[in-house]
Amino acid sequence: MGLFTELKDSISRVTDRLFSEEEPKRIGIYGPPNAGKTTLANRIARDWTGDAVGAESHIPHETRRARRKEGVEIERNGKSVEIDIVDTPGVTTKVDYEEFTDEMEEDDAIRRSREATEGVAEAMHWLREDVDGVIYVLDSAEDPITQVNTMLIGIIESRDLPVLIFANKIDLDDASVKRIEDAFPQHKTIPLSAKEGENMDEVYENIAEYFG
Amino acid sequence: MPKATNTDDPEGPDGVQIDLISGERMENMATMEKIRMILDGVHDGNIVILEEGLTPDEESRLIEVTMSEISPDEFNGIEIETYPKSKTNDSSLLGRIMGGEESTAKLTVIGPANQIETLHKDETLISALVSRD
Q1: Do A124 and B63 touch (CB under 8 A)?
Q2: Is residue A10 situated within a structural domain?
Q3: How many structural domains does chain A have?
Q4: Which domain holds residue B107?
Q5: By its UniProt entry, which InterPro entries does this protein fall under (chain B) (predicted)?
Q6: CA nearest to A186 within chain B
């Protein structure tokens, strides 16, 4: 049996096992800080429910607690899936409140960092216990081969969670989707710009196909 | 912040302690024992080098526990670097399909985020700068 046939069969086994029930699947949106996770979550939620999930910001750790948008029904090409979108804080191994003091008062920066650490811990716990699949968002203009990305993809794989990699921010001059495809060739990579709404048809096709 | 270690003299020596932990020492430890040992060392300002790395589940718990211990002006987290998994020791889905065994045989360097900076990493080399302040 060819490699890609085996890969496809293996993915099918995983998804068949996890997605056999008719209840909404909890799809966690994970990735490093500032990859555009909340922008993507808002784009999906607005397109299919009319409501946003949470505030967006250029300051890291704008999303400090996981937020869920329930009952998002996505349909494309005859395939449909109902998902609960779980937008999570950007995962990191360090948080220094002084990184925020240029943008806000020290007390607010300390509060922000404390909430961020609690949020990341919660997101890691949920990854082990509470999600059925993962959308992993990366900034196409950044080097994807970081320790956090490598660890997180490894954690997701070790739990046999289906994962789609979204190469976000393709509207930026430095974007390179190939760099992401080369970094994680074992997973399907979909290019998009959540901010500009570029390639969202393919995004929804893949969500409906892969998680449906 | 790095402590002068193994001395009763508060004036010195001034240095950074490096703990090189063998796979043998880790093999019978529970997950939380490993994480406690790593983070206790890092809290003391040490650089911890694991002969054999952590499993994905242990890495997940290390991040979670690290986050719960971050405190302003005291501890702002860890830097961690591991050699990328080799193609023959790949624990990814693709690796498992190809018959590879899951392995933690990968040297891992962990240190305080405010003291350790990775200068270069590839499949065979981790180059890190450790500052004393």
Answers
A1: yes
A2: no
A3: 1
A4: 18-130
A5: OapB-like (IPR012017)
A6: B94
